[in-house]
Amino acid sequence: MSSVITTTGLTKRYGRRTALSDCTLHVPAGHVVGLVGPNGAGKSTLLQLTCGLLTPTAGTIEVLGETPHTGSPRIGFVAQDTPVYGNLTIAEHLRFGAHLNPGWDQALAEGRIAELGLDPAQRAGKLSGGQRAQLALTLAIAKRPELLLLDEPVAALDPLARREFLQGLMAYAAEHGTSVVMSSHLVADLERVCDHLIVLVNSRVRVDGDVEELLGTHHRLTGPRRDPSTLGPGRHVVQASHTDVQSTLVVRSTAPVDDPTWASDRLDLEDLVLAYMTEAGAHGRDRVLEKR
């Protein structure tokens, strides 16, 4: 299977509000995918459509070759608030997971809890935020899912807890070849673990591609002020800013920029994401002004 998630024109509306619009994606199997965008961009909606918690308003979505449905043992999902039951012990969580999931790996779950140094008799309500996140991840991966979905799992964690969570995630994904899609607004964290990137802004897909390829084809150009349209074919201007004498452009280019008047620098992943988010926001403001 080359794609674990395939969508065509996927759209979700709540009354007059559009949460996701005309989303067409092919999420590759065996990769760790970063899903990035500002709050309200549609990240959680896309993940909930993927695991069957929501149904589309329009378009189609296929997950692991079938229509998504709730309770699929092939999908592990950790929601944004890393939900656990505060009055249950860790051991009771594991027994609950075993009861609900026919493919449950008790040895994996118990081994991971021991590796984390957690007491199985401790109630989840007494755990720290990082420990609750690790418990939620353990419950998701002990299902032995083919696809693991994580919705802002580290947003509320301190830097050390974030690093430990991501290290555990990467170790599991590397050992078992599980496909992972993780949403986050912490791009620096994603840059360390993800090899594929999706950027959502204003409910639409702005970027979808291999991280290495994206970083290799995006450049920041600085030179004398000029019209960006003069760059020529094969060069898409993502973002442009100008002073009286200078232009700074973020460009996606399939052709070399061989004009010596341009100074060219490569972008890191955060620069790339911010360029698309900033430009999309500017277009949105322009549309509002036009309507007025």
TrEMBL record:
Entry keywords, A to Z: ATP-binding, Nucleotide-binding, Transport
Pfam families per record: ABC_tran
Name this protein carries in UniProt: ABC transporter ATP-binding protein
Xref: Gene3D superfamilies: P-loop containing nucleotide triphosphate hydrolases (3.40.50.300)
Record domain ABC transporter: where: 5-227
InterPro entries for the chain: AAA+_ATPase (IPR003593), ABC_transporter-like_ATP-bd (IPR003439), ABC_Transporter_VariousFunc (IPR051782), P-loop_NTPase (IPR027417)
Chain segments annotated as coiled-coil in the UniProt record: none
GO molecular function terms noted in the UniProt entry: ATP binding
